[in-house]
Automatic annotation (TrEMBL):
Family designation: Belongs to the agmatine deiminase family.
Signal peptide (residue range): none
Gene3D superfamilies in UniProt: L-arginine/glycine Amidinotransferase, Chain A
Recorded superkingdom: Bacteria
HAMAP family registered for this protein in UniProt: Agmatine_deimin (MF_01841)
Annotated protein name in UniProt: Putative agmatine deiminase
Classification of source organism: Bacteria, Pseudomonadati, Pseudomonadota, Gammaproteobacteria, Oceanospirillales
Key word Hydrolase present: yes
Catalytic activity: agmatine + H2O = N-carbamoylputrescine + NH4(+)
């Protein structure tokens, strides 16, 4: 095991007073990307594009939405997206803005900044999902230029879907992802905690062992569990003991109910039913191009469906509609958890077929609010 890199001479974001706010804090904007890869999205991504438009349209009711588009799809995206959604030319290898986009930070003086993590397409040449990922690696730098904000470059290979924070010092993640040998094999858990603290301003990291069953991201936390308020989390759950997801969720629940957060609180755990189980149909797999450099979509493969993969907007919660058996129950639970927001369900199977869901295709840009002191 290698040791940490030499101590940085420049101050860390945390030392400068920056921190990552919770998703449920106010936003100025949401960033997305436009799907088009025929080897990941069926039928030339046309069904997926319709789902992305639906997500962007709902979020744009209460915050600015930017959609980054490759040049050859710019006119098509502009035609389908509402006029108040801002379409910008921003080349990408695929459409997972949560993972390839920046993690935004705020400062008490009102400044906005970002963390530019390393990205290797969820594992690089050891289990990664596509090659190359050169355009994705430039997205964070480009957004920093567009917004004119400071960019802190981190040595960590990390995707945004691998972390959730409560905005009060606590971060939650999974060992399966952040400690995976295809991400950061040279650093220990303690090293990872120090780097997360340095770049995000957190003081406590809560580790769950595994993410959702068959999650191709190597266990992103945002498909399993998320903060919905300080001291409260939502966790995907199934009562079916024969389902591999049951053991994963039970293990996570036991840990979550025993730990305390950075403020010393015991967590309140809210359970969201698991949809399905869901699997890729023959007709769905047949519409995807087969290329050697990308993950195949095979009929019968299980999909890592989860209602936890929702987006918390300023006035809405945008959740995936995935299974008529459980959609209404999941929506009712979310409505009880977010009484001051409208919960809107979007048909999201097309997004799931590509390997993720609504949270995965979005990245919130927090509102940087200047702290006020007593005069």
């Amino acid at each position: 095991m290698k040791t940490m890199p030499p101590v940085r001479h420049s101050p860390t974001p945390a030392e400068l007073g920056f921190r990552m706010p919770a998703e449920f804090a106010p936003h100025d904007a949401c960033w997305m990307l436009w799907p088009q890869r025929p080897d990941n999205w069926r039928y030339g991504a046309k069904p997926a594009q319709a789902a992305f438009v639906a997500v962007a349209s709902v979020i744009a009711e209460s915050e600015t939405v930017f959609v980054g588009v490759n040049d050859d799809q710019y006119e098509n995206a502009r035609h389908h997206l509402p006029a108040h959604v801002r379409v910008v030319e921003l080349s990408s290898n695929d459409a997972w803005m949560r993972d390839v986009g920046p993690t935004f930070l705020t400062h008490p003086d009102g400044r906005l900044a970002m963390v530019d993590w390393e990205f290797n397409a969820w594992g690089g040449l050891d289990g990664g999902l596509y090659f190359p990922w050169d355009k994705d690696r430039r997205i964070r730098m480009k957004i920093a230029e567009i917004l004119g904000i400071e960019r802190f470059i981190s040595p960590l290979v990390l995707e945004g879907g691998a972390i959730h924070v409560d905005g009060e010092g606590t971060l939650i993640t999974t060992e399966e992802c952040l400690l995976n040998s295809n991400r950061n094999p040279e650093w220990s858990k303690a090293d990872m905690e120090r780097l997360l603290s340095d770049f995000l301003g957190v003081s406590k990291v809560l580790w769950l062992p595994r993410g959702c069953h068959r999650d191709e991201t190597d266990g992103h936390i945002d498909n399993l569990c998320c903060f919905i308020a300080p001291g409260e989390v939502a966790l995907t759950w199934t009562d079916d003991e024969s389902d591999p997801q049951h053991a994963i969720s039970r293990e996570a629940r036991e840990i979550l109910e025993q730990v305390t957060d950075a403020q010393g609180r015991r967590l309140k755990v809210h359970l969201l039913p698991q949809p399905g189980p869901l699997h890729i149909a023959e007709t769905e797999a047949s519409g995807v191009d087969r290329l050697s450099g990308s993950k195949p979509r095979r009929p019968g493969d299980r999909l890592a469906g989860s209602y936890v993969n929702f987006y918390i907007g300023n006035s809405v919660v945008v959740m995936p509609r995935l299974d008529p058996t459980h959609d209404d129950e999941a929506r009712a639970i979310l409505e009880s958890l977010f009484p001051e927001r409208r919960v809107i369900a979007i048909d999201a199977r097309e997004i799931l077929l590509g390997g993720g869901n609504i949270h995965c295709i979005t990245q919130q840009q927090p509102r940087a609010i200047r702290a006020t002191g007593r005069s």
